[in-house]
Design goal:
This protein has 143 residues and is α+β, with helices and mostly antiparallel strands. Helix content is 30%, strand content 28%. The protein has two domains: 1-46, N-terminal domain of TfIIb (Single Sheet); 48-142, 2-Layer Sandwich (GMP Synthetase, Chain A, domain 3). The strands form two sheets. The protein has a three-stranded antiparallel β-sheet, with no helix packed on it. Strands 4-5-6 form a three-stranded mixed β-sheet, covered by helices on one side.
Length: 143
């Protein structure tokens, strides 16, 4: 795959990784990180899965808007994408793994059209491409 890079951004994690802080080069992200209670932490900060779900949701919605517009069926402004990231033990290798549940809401279209638009966005979205085959992903559509 040849990528013609148009933008880069870096973030630095310090401290204990999941129990530390993360700061982006721009300073717009400057967060205390704490493991969630479900993983034995205090839950008093953000965590990598929260950041990943936010980025994935925004990226997928952008992909949905772009692909639907290019197909001549732009989605309504009220359309949303919710990405739920799960983390847990990977029974295959004893480490941890992720899951992604992507819920696409497109009001005013029938279910078949909604699925067609969501599938096109899933094929186009860079986050979906990066994780396809690496984590379990599901895409559901609400209309």
């Amino acid at each position: 795959m040849a990528i013609d890079v148009a933008y880069t951004i870096s973030s630095k994690a310090a401290g204990g990784g999941r129990d530390g802080e993360v700061v982006s080069d721009t300073g717009r992200i400057d967060l205390e990180l704490r493991p969630p209670k479900e993983l034995g932490g205090s839950g008093d900060g953000s965590n990598p899965e929260e950041l990943f779900s936010a980025g994935y949701a925004a990226c997928f919605l952008g992909a949905l808007r772009a692909t639907s517009k290019n197909a001549g069926s732009p989605v309504p402004d009220e359309s949303t994408v919710t990405v739920t990231i799960g983390i847990g033990k990977d029974s295959a290798d004893g480490g941890f793994g992720l899951t992604a549940a992507i819920e696409v809401y497109i009001p005013g279209v029938d279910e078949a059209k909604g699925k067609e638009l969501a599938d096109a966005a899933h094929a186009f979205c860079p986050y979906s491409k990066a994780t396809r085959g690496n984590i379990d992903q599901t895409v559901t559509v609400r209309v």
